[in-house]
Amino acid sequence: HPRVNILQPGCGVGGHCIAVDPYFITAEFPMESRMISTARETNNYKAFWCAEKVRNAMLRFELRHGRKPAVAMMGLAFKPDIDDLRESPAKGITTKVLQSCNNADIMVVEPNVSEHKLFKLTPYKEAYEKADIVVFLVNHREFAGLNYRDDVEVLDFCGTFKK
Questions:
Q1: What SS3 class is residue 68?
Q2: Of 28, 48, 78, 130, most Cβ neighbours within 10 A?
Q3: CB 77, CB 112: distance < 8 Å
């Protein structure tokens, strides 16, 4: 695809084209498009899987430390370095985590958006420094300058610290 490197790791497929358009094909040609349906199901499940990984990390932290963790959810956009949150799996994961957090301190970060009607946004450096668990959902260029922290649990779903 000319604008998106679709072979990069991530927490799912989002946006207003790739995440939505296949449903038009599968509705019109269900038998001929089973592979497309299966691909969409797999990509949709990835966001659920990521949310479960975050929740499990939060439970482990609470059992070890006797308190709720501070969690930094890094990125809401559907792809790096944009402000478009349409059909974003990162936004969905963050919502799922917030709904099940039981008063944990969840810091939501999106460096390309100044404010959001549903999420209270935290500056990325502040969230990164305060977090007990850091969850990279979108590989924004701002995050590339952060030093890896080995004193916290890092869930890197998008390859921010890939070698």
A1: coil
A2: 78
A3: yes
Secondary structure letter of residue 152 according to DSSP: S
CATH number of 21-156: 3.40.50.720
pLDDT tens, position by position, 109-153? 999 999 888 899 999 999 999 999 999 999 999 999 999 999 999
What residues pair up with 39 in beta bridges, in sequence order? none
Is residue 97 within 8 A of residue 62, CB to CB? The reply is no
pLDDT in tens, 60-72: 999 999 999 999 9
Q: Are 30 and 24 in contact (CB under 8 A)?
A: no
Nearest to 75 by CA among 89, 54, 60: 89
Q: Where are the domains of the chain?
A: 21-156
Report the alpha-carbon distance of residue 59 to residue 100 in Å, rounded.
11
Angle, vertex CA 143, rays to CA 141 and CA 145, nearest 5: 90
